[in-house]
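The passage that follows is intended for readers who have already worked through the single-chain material. We present the inputs for a multi-component assembly, then the predicted structure in tokenized form, and finally a short commentary. You are encouraged to pause after the input and sketch how you expect the pieces to fit together before reading on.
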Amino acid sequence: MPVPARTAALAAIHPIQVVTRRTGLSADVIRVWEKRYGVVTPVRSAGGRRLYSDADIERLRLLAHATLSGGTIGRLAALSPEALAALIAPADASTGAVTGIDAARPAHEAVRRPSPVPGGTAMTAARDHLDTSLAAITRFDGVALDLLLRRAAIALSAEAFLDALVVPLTERIAAHVRDGTLRPAHRHLAHAVLRRVLDHVTTTATPPLPSRDVVVTTPSGQGQELGALLAAAAAAADGWRVTYMGPGLPAEDIVETVERIGARALVLSLGAAPGDRVIPRELRRLRALLPGDVAVLLEGAGAEVHRSVTAEIRAAAPRDLAEMREQLRALADGSDDVPTSDGTAAAAAPGRGRGRR
Amino acid sequence: MPVPARTAALAAIHPIQVVTRRTGLSADVIRVWEKRYGVVTPVRSAGGRRLYSDADIERLRLLAHATLSGGTIGRLAALSPEALAALIAPADASTGAVTGIDAARPAHEAVRRPSPVPGGTAMTAARDHLDTSLAAITRFDGVALDLLLRRAAIALSAEAFLDALVVPLTERIAAHVRDGTLRPAHRHLAHAVLRRVLDHVTTTATPPLPSRDVVVTTPSGQGQELGALLAAAAAAADGWRVTYMGPGLPAEDIVETVERIGARALVLSLGAAPGDRVIPRELRRLRALLPGDVAVLLEGAGAEVHRSVTAEIRAAAPRDLAEMREQLRALADGSDDVPTSDGTAAAAAPGRGRGRR
DNA sequence: GCCGTCTTGTCAAGATATTGTCTAGGACAA
DNA sequence: TTGTCCTAGACAATATCTTGACAAGACGGC
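Having made your guess, compare it with the prediction:
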């Protein structure tokens, strides 16, 4: 195996506690795996303490994921990193993306993925994270929440993190604020942290190499950006190169962004704002200005509210993140059609070029 | 290891207490780190007292943050600033990104980074960053901009990064959009990236230890959050523990946040919105609800616009970041003796040792 | 189905290593 | 004089290490 020439990455300097955080394994397990199966061979400090390299950590994390999928460590321990990755990839491709981030190492290869279902274990794991996160919010501990979420993003797959943790978390927060268990200030704090973490997930999960481009934003008049960030993170974890533009973009600027980037898809996040007059107008203007072959996805509660306009501008309206993923994938698989919620094919006027420079 | 002749331009003039304030480390720790691990080598005054340069402080802050993630100071101390930064922001997927994209040129160029912190040339260094950043914006390259800014934040000191790069950059962008050289879409892109980077700077610069707390937000009706993030980053770099709450917070929620956290100061960022009726009302409500010993600072163009209210609610109105820093520092110095009129959560009483962890 | 064996994660105890804080005695600065 | 800073050493709190034991499942044979 070729040795990467990155000094920082080579440095084997992480004490076991860091490995604990980044792999989700207990220190005991890490040690016993080393002793019984020789999964890694960390160097030792002068005082005899184990010092792990990023590569060690990466391998441990791969193993941890692989065992979650059912294999026994005794057998997996002998496998090469490639074999491990191959084993995990079919079950959970997003791992590759998120993994690449922290370990700064593995390639961004397998972006394809068949079965989206993370599995029952991931759900229960996510529930734990959910409870601890809520506890942190309750005691108004933003730092702890930040840490917990980042850790969860690593421990869980990107998909599980978003679907089984972030989404339920925001819903629970909203519910608690409604029934008075939490104050609005709690929600603000949580949202501030969530924005930060989601932004982080998005940028780190975004594949560096040229790939399918998608622009994510919120139309003019929409201030709520959590949904947009969620969509951005989901798209990024799914192998799209995301350009996130923040909330409240006028139609002209959206169009210009899409054209300059040459994006194939545009995801707009719409909060529920019944009776809103601005949004429908912006959406119509958007479709008029937008190249015909750019697919438009309306994410969030607002898509339901403005359903007639949604149909009118030939936009897809995924019900949730899972549906959005499917539609994005359909888009990526070469078909220019995005299935709309009611089944009609949306978008795609392949004849008209988009006139890129 | 080349030993660069230290330019007198970057005066090493800070006594240890300033370092204490700006890093969140106790004087004991700073001294013992120097003695045991040689993390910095401050010059001495005629009387034998340590005098720290800004670069020293920056390094100490990086180290303090790096230890937070679990690394042991004994090993971290030997690391280069680049390696440290990579450790703190393991999310360096963007590095891989650009490396991969223009892989045409050898990676060495990126690794062999130049100029740590030249004193008098700090401004020229910042000018370079400014130009390259503007170029990235012009060609609509958000990924490159992100990378450039993060690098600059490491290469320059936090102060220089904010004052000599970010602030001028936003001004130049605004000017270019005005005169038509850049499109609004460019500005949106740049702001989206800037928000992300500033948020990152804020969190990484915020001292992990209990220290003086400040809450940064934007009052209800203010959507623009770049200024608030800028102020947050500046305060964090100055040793305050920042709780950033995002834009558009109603007075009640601001007050509740301040009280729950036990913050000593509140920074509100106000954009220029002449004729605004909501802001003055919110500000008055705020002062009425807020504990009397909480200092209020109004940052941004809006403070000028609402000058009468500013005076009425006994708020400071710094003209720029430098002035805000001064006022914050004065607050930090003076309040040692100021008794808390209200018995709420005595916060961090400085002076004696502060509890680690 | 039942029972022994193997696998695997967790825990305990006793010893070291590492690190932050504190004390004491003295010097310097305003 | 008073407050800040310096050095050196002592000390307490964590983190980690090693060895060994053990419980819960998984598995295979009867």
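Commentary: Residues 184-205 of chain A form the longest helix (22 residues). The radius of gyration of chain A is 22 Å. How closely did your sketch match?
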